[in-house]
Amino acid sequence: MPNIFYKLKKLQINQIQDSASLALRKCKTKGKKYAAGNLKSENYLNKLVHLDEGFRVLRNLRSSPPYFEKCKKDLFAMIRQLGNPTWFCSFSAAETRWTHLLKTLGRIVEKKEYMDEEIKQMTWEQKSDLIQKDPVTCARNVEHMVQLFIRDVLKSNVAPIGEIADYFYRVEFQQRGSPHIHGLFWVKEAPQYEKNSNEDIVKFVDKYITCQKSDSSNEMEELINLQTHRHAKTCKKTGHNVCRFNFPVPPMPKTMILTPFDCSCFDEQNKKIIKENAEKIKELLDNMKYGEEISFEDFLNKLQLTQGSCILAIRHTLKHDTLFLKRAPSEIRINSYNTDLLKVWQANMDMQYVLDPYACATYILSYISKGQRGMSRLLEKACEEAKSGNKDITNRVRLIGNKFLNALKLVFKKLYILYYKCQ
């Protein structure tokens, strides 16, 4: 592990040094010509340096602010060129469930060939201990799985989510060190919201995703259990008083797109009734047990509401147009999924049709630029230190680069310590 990080740092130092020597050749000259004699003058060099140019040297270094800035521009360019993305997908890792990974770790870490039956008999603690001993192999395994998953499943002739025209994804490492994939997929000839009818969109969505527990096989029952949302401290992160993932989700008799309801045309009495109905729905959903088997009609009877009144109350709580899948009351905590993809990936996933490309892009970009603010402040401080010292332009850039690499080294160290600490 230390050897890998040492080599990575040496590689990044070389990239910074090479970028420092190439910075002038790549900058925009606006028709001006620079002679060798100009570059011998310290004052002339200072005129070439702009306040925001120092960061560009780090553009090719992963996790740096200019690297993320480039990712943002790439994503916006794809949306402008390809149009609205069709699917927003998230794929989590489940290292303790992946038999092939545990067998590989057994060969590498313990020099032992495990059989499938031996892996099944392992306790959760034994699997976690094996994983914790080699986080690099675990991370490489996920990256390899993602590449195979996209190439051999998503882009295959079977087209489990439609024929993919293009895609964009970002790998996020969660607090415990486990990788998490967030991606956008553009599907050829997919219906688009406000361009095609809602009926066409609903038919398209129902063809590919669901949240139902209809399959009673042991394999699917176990996989759907992975899709079941259980509240944790992350649900109320960043000041949320309720679950920021909006679980539990109201049941629906069929898949439909609901728009926010404007109560301005109602009198105060009707507004109060609609608001009270919305609170009754939320209270009942929060109090329902996991997997409680009742029909949608029984759900309405408990609320003492008609279907129309229930839908109206749900619309009252919305802030933007939202697609709700057909969902029984026993499925109010199940993440939407594609059956074929869930069987292949063998871990938690979330798949949603994109109604609002701007909101989706903003959500993706919030992950792309996560942690960027702190790094930007660090580099701004490094720039101030470089300018205050008696250094030439090359050494100033190297100082900024070393500040970034030292900070990144601490991140790697924390990642190594935290990896599966929670398991």
What does this structure look like?
The structure is a single chain. By secondary structure, the chain is an alpha+beta fold. Helix content is about 50%, strand content about 10%. It is built from 16 helices and six strands. The protein is globular. The chain starts with a helix and ends in a 5-residue tail after the last helix. The relative contact order is 0.15.
The strand order across the widest sheet is 2-3-1-6
Q: H/E series, N to C? A: HHHEHHHHEEHHEHHHEHEHHH
Strands, count: 6
Q: Tell me the number of helical segments per DSSP (H or I, 4 or more residues long).
A: 16
Terminal Cα span: 20 Å
Proportion of residues in β-strands? 5-15%
Q: How would a textbook summarize the main sheet?
A: 4 strands, antiparallel
Instruction: Determine the mean pLDDT.
Output: 78
The outline comes out as globular
**Radius of gyration, Cα only, in angstroms?**
26 Å
Fraction of residues in helix? 40-55%
